[in-house]
Amino acid sequence: MDIKKGHKLYTIFLRYLVSFCVLSIILIFSLITTFNMAVNFDLLYPANYVQNQVEKLKLEVDKGLKLDEDKIPYPSKYVFLNEKNEIFKTNLSKDELENANKYLKGENFKSKYIYSKISYEGGTCVIGYDIKAHFTSRYWNELIPYPEILLIGIFFIGFIGIACIIAVKFGKKIKKELYPLKASTEKIINQDLDFEIIPSNVKEFNDVLNSISNMRVALKKSLQTQWYIEQEKKNQICALAHDIKTPITIIKGNAELLNESELCEEDKEFAGYIINNANKIEKYVETLMDISKSDMGEYKLNENIKTDEILDELKSELYMLCSLKDIRVVTNINYKTKSFISNKELLMRAIINIISNAVDYSPPKSEIEFVVSENEGMLMFTIRDSGRGFTENGLKNATNQFYMEASERKVGKHYGMGLYIAKSVAKNHGGSVILKNREDKDGAEVSLIINTKA
What we know:
Elements: H1 9-40, E1 44-45, H2 49-62, E2 77-82, E3 87-90, H3 94-105, E4 114-120, E5 123-129, E6 134-135, H4 138-143, H5 147-189, H6 203-260, H7 265-296, E7 303-306, H8 307-323, E8 328-333, E9 339-342, H9 344-361, E10 367-375, E11 378-384, H10 392-397, H11 418-428, E12 432-437, E13 444-451
Parallel strand pairs: 8-10
Antiparallel strand pairs: 1-6, 2-3, 2-5, 4-5, 7-9, 10-11, 11-13, 12-13
Helix pairs in contact: 1-5, 5-6, 6-7, 7-11, 8-9, 9-11
């Protein structure tokens, strides 16, 4: 699969950047237009309004117009002085009165106002004003003295708002285009390699998807090869185990015949060794065949098993094994399912393997708990021993094939098969094996769960 279509990432980014710039320019022009409309509708005075009105007032006074505070243009400040330079009318603050006095004396000073003097018959008027826009309404002018600052604030809020909107849209776009990557990797994680890759609209992402597609094909081929090798290996093990049974049977049969004949004590002892070890080899061969059949799914769940009967057999085996070490058995059995479909031989062997491990790891005269419970069609067989419990590695790996516990827990002869077989049997019954250490005291707890509704 070779996906080539799609836009380059930088072109997509440029589109959003251009959109951001265009929207920002529209915002600026909108604010300027709003400002001009407010001036045209006499809602705002332009920045030079007071200055023009003061110049106009000067000309009118020169022509003989009588000057009083009503003639002073709003929102400027003023002070009226008589012929003796005494203040008789003003709306300037104390500091600004000092600045007005400095202005009259020709001194340098700093002020937020520009001052202008109008001389008239009987005195002088000094007017202070700024070169800024103002609301024509006294209420709004006192509330918002400088509309330009308001416009700048609106611009920055709008600017940030546009940036956030563009960023969110760009993020959603990238997230949408990343979905094929996410979907493909999730499929591979779930070992589903038979899927079609959905192309993205971004060229760079499609390059990655091409790599994922190539990896998927290579991985699928590798897994198929590995699966074939594993199947061949299991077939060979199963065939070899089957072939070994014949010579073992012959050796065992002849050893038994020898043992029944007239032999000296030493020869009978040797014949007994042959029989005992032949029995062990038979068990190992049966274990290997069980593993092979379980992994290949060759055995069928076609027996209708009565729950009470299989539990009676399991308890009988449990009591027998525990009696060898004088271990006390505690049972707690509670179930509803009267029968279920299974393979009795393998299920029994799986649970007995767990029981046998529990007996091996428990010290003499200790205690083993056998608990059977049921929840929503899942039947659980739990065995709790009184040993040292699982190590940290044991909890993670004890159900793996050929895994053997560390020396501090390992006892007797174990070959890493028991829990592996139990896990395989449980899996074929739609269940699982759960390992943990006991919370009430030292010891391990192993639960084999099967689905009785499967």
